[in-house]
Design brief:
With about 475 residues, this protein is an alpha/beta fold. β11, α9 and β12 form a beta-alpha-beta unit. The chain has a 13-stranded mixed beta sheet with strand order 2-1-10-9-11-12-13-14-15-20-19-17-16, with helices on both faces. Strands 4-3-5-6 form a four-stranded parallel beta sheet, with helices on both faces. The protein has a three-stranded antiparallel beta sheet with strand order 7-8-18.
């Protein structure tokens, strides 16, 4: 993007002027070039104005892996409003809770919510209206939003389980789009398939990144039907894919060999929202020897901040990669004072940059827990910057085991244990110890056909770890409880 812009919607218009015939966005049934899509957005904004949407409004929009959703988001932003995207399967009572919280009475979706106080606007009717060439909508003139204007509120669930609304400005989205472009080196002619739910920050930000870059994006609803997935790969000649690990697992389970046949078509594959297992990293690296493979570290609060090209640096244990172009990484102690972080004395990761959120909506106290008045966002993760310039993650604050003053990262133990043929999954936690204050305990899930042999596992761990890091307490369970993102 040569010209300085203050919003993604302005970038969309500029790219429509430069490359009107290039594919902008597509899905299973519909697609539009940049020229077509900008015309649709102008018409849609005018249509929404007639339906009562005005500058400063918050519009709650229901997720759908379709061109219509992207159209609705940009149309609201062109009017001068902001959006609050919700998941596709959300229930009416939860919709109303969120609408009350974000002070909105405008709901944009395929199906209305049953409440007389809500201005229900049909996404289907909007899409139909902007494509009606027999009765074309004559667009009104709109001003582009400013850098500090609110673009969206994204809901996320923290470790406490409390849902929080993250305020994202237009300027924040520009910085994140630049981070997205930098993270995987998106080409101008890239055609990226986004398989993750469109209401999720990962999908929205990949969408913004592609449109800011002037490349192409295609949406699909996970891989409910494997044939649809491969049909889209062929129809649009997809050159890049964004997955979350759970969706990749489905592809590897049901169509691994067929997926591998696209090794010469894909420039890169990116995974986000959760760490990818070491086993699947190896599988992907073998399947796609000439494809760039990435795992993103980030959060809704600050977007894509660190990225690992594991096809290049996969041998570096605990490495999460390099920081992205707009990201400044800091390492601090529990009082938020800077520290010289090292493997022996890890610091809490914090990030400074324009990509950081404005704050949690209506939650100043919770905002202060993770963000200071200088705009720095603090995580609960512990790590350090290596001599190679890459970031290394040792665990989460509160999870690191303090064994008589010696810090032990549970992930270090878990990574070793996961390589034993007996083990399907495992998790290491700290438990009280009379002598060392804390000690490691290991929960294990066994692979089918194996019985638990503690002596054998301990012997194996001793060959890979210092003796004090080998747990004395084990517990076999059926499954490691995990959150939706791993």
């Amino acid at each position: 993007m040569e010209k300085s812009v203050t919003s993604i919607i302005e970038a969309l218009k500029l790219n429509a002027q430069k490359t009107p015939d290039k594919l902008c966005v597509g899905d299973k049934k519909n697609h539009a070039t940049y020229g077509e899509f900008w015309t649709m957005v102008e018409r849609a904004a005018t249509w929404l104005r007639e339906k009562g949407v005005k500058k400063g409004d918050m519009v709650v929009i229901r997720g759908a892996q379709k061109v219509e959703f992207v159209l609705g988001v940009f149309a609201v932003q062109l009017v001068g409003g902001a959006v609050c995207p919700l998941e596709k399967a959300i229930k009416d009572d939860r919709i109303m809770e969120i609408m009350d919280f974000v002070d909105s009475n405008i709901y944009l979706a395929d199906k209305p919510v049953k409440n007389e106080q809500v201005n229900n606007i049909s996404l289907k009717e909007l899409f139909k209206a902007v494509r009606d060439e027999e009765n074309p909508i004559r667009p009104l003139a709109f001003e582009f939003p400013k850098e500090d204007d609110l673009s969206e509120i994204l809901f996320t669930t923290g470790t406490t389980g409390k849902s929080k609304g993250i305020e994202v400005t237009c300027g924040c989205n520009i910085a994140i789009a630049q981070n997205v472009m930098d993270s995987v080196q998106i080409g101008k002619d890239e055609v990226e398939l986004i398989t993750t739910p469109i209401n999720h920050s990962l999908a929205i930000r990949r969408t913004y990144g592609a449109i800011y870059n002037g490349s192409s994006l295609v949406l699909t609803d996970g891989i409910k039907f494997v044939e649809d997935f491969f049909k889209i790969l062929d129809t649009y000649k997809i050159t890049a894919i964004t997955f979350v690990p759970a969706i990749l697992e489905q592809v590897l389970k049901f169509a691994k060999d067929r997926f591998a046949s696209y090794k010469n078509q894909l420039n890169y594959i990116q995974l986000g929202s959760a760490p990818l297992s070491e086993n699947n990293k190896k599988i992907l690296t073998q399947m796609f020897p000439d494809t760039r493979l990435y795992n993103t570290y980030g959060a809704t609060e600050s977007g894509c901040t660190v990225i690992l090209e594991f096809s290049k640096y996969g041998d570096k244990q605990k490495c999460i990669g390099r920081t992205t172009v707009n990201t400044e990484i800091l390492f601090v102690d529990e009082s938020r004072n800077p520290v010289e972080a090292s493997p022996e004395n890890p610091g809490i990761l914090a990030f400074r940059g324009k990509m950081n959120m404005k704050g949690y909506y209506k939650e100043p106290e919770i905002t202060a827990e993770v963000m200071d008045d200088q705009g720095v966002v603090y995580t609960n993760d512990l790590g350090y910057l290596g001599d190679d310039g890459l970031v290394y993650l040792l665990g989460r604050q509160g999870e690191v085991i303090n064994m008589g003053g010696i810090k032990i990262a549970p992930t270090e133990i878990e990574e070793v244990v996961m390589k034993h043929e007996m083990i399907k999954d495992c998790a290491c936690i700290p438990i009280p110890d009379e002598i060392t204050t804390e000690a490691p305990k290991l929960f294990v899930v066994l692979n089918e056909g194996f019985g638990f042999d503690q002596k054998e596992l301990s012997k194996y761990m001793l060959s890979k770890l210092e003796s004090l890091k080998v747990p004395k307490v084990f517990e076999v369970i059926d499954e490691i409880p995990r959150t939706f993102n791993g």
